[in-house]
Design goal:
With 314 residues, the chain is mainly alpha-helical. It has two domains: 19-100 and 111-148 and 242-313, Up-down Bundle (3 helical TM bundles of succinate and fumarate reductases), CATH 1.20.1300.10; 151-235, no CATH class. 75% of the residues lie in helices and 5% in strands. It has helices spanning 6-48, 57-68, 70-100, 115-142, 154-173, 178-197, 199-203, 220-229, 238-245, 249-276, 285-313; strands at 150-153, 205-207, 213-218, 235-236. Strands 2-3-1-4 form a four-stranded antiparallel beta sheet. β2 and β3 form a beta hairpin.
Length: 314
Amino acid sequence: MKRETKFDKLLRQAIELIDIASIAKKIVLALLGLFLITFLLVHLGLNLTILRGDGGEWFRAGAYFMGSNWIVKILGFGILGAILAHIALGLFIQFMNWRARPIGYKARIKSKTAFGSKLMIWTGILLGFLIVIHLTHFWFVKHGWSEGRYIVKTERVERALGARQFELYNIFQNAQNEDEQMSAQMEFMALENFVQGSEKLQIIMFPGFGGQRFIADLSKEDIKELRTFLDVPYKADFWAMMHEMFKNIWMVLLYVFFSIVLGFHLAHAIPSGFQTLGLAHSKYTWLVKYAGYGLAAIIATGFAIVPLFIYFFR
């Protein structure tokens, strides 16, 4: 038997490290994917509250909480990072596989690779483009990078209004001269006229889930006008934005297509992820496989239902 040289040993160790690194990348990819599926289920749960037909009470309350809670905000950036890492790692692994066999076989041999596995890279790339579109529609508005519709808590408006009225009253009472008194009185009257004359403040107020009340469906101009008088925080009104956007049949079809592509991607990704993590066994592989198909179908159908429901029933 030929004795192993130092060079052969180094070469063997390098190959083993590459193999370990390749497996590690696939494990990380699978873990990121399963984490994102958890996020999809939470996202879907919130979206499905729209089907209640309650004027957005549950949806707005949930979305407002998620937009106000710092833990959820930080988690939101973590989710975006996980999406980017999942896409980048998936592309890297696929390109390395292609590089390992840059020239196809001369004879056409029927591949044993599942059809869903062959589609993974293409559905993943397509989902990447669709996610960018989705972010521009909603996430950009949330962070003030584009305009949309907005919502404020009535409680915050009432509190700020009371505090500002009390402040102006004190300024008026403690004014050193008539000019200060007149200025405070004019601002107080302007504030009263704004509140009494604002259609948004008088009409769009309704009980929300958990006893909250909201002034909703505000434009950027409405927010600017409100904040000239009262410094109150505001959030994106995704309920109003979704109802406005899904009046357009082409946007409905785009998001239904988005849901179908997502379903195809998940149908292979879920069983594949469990297999990569060593959680599949010959005795119950079929169960993992069909459970993955079922979960993928539920997620895809749930996301597709929302734009269709808004278009046809709202």
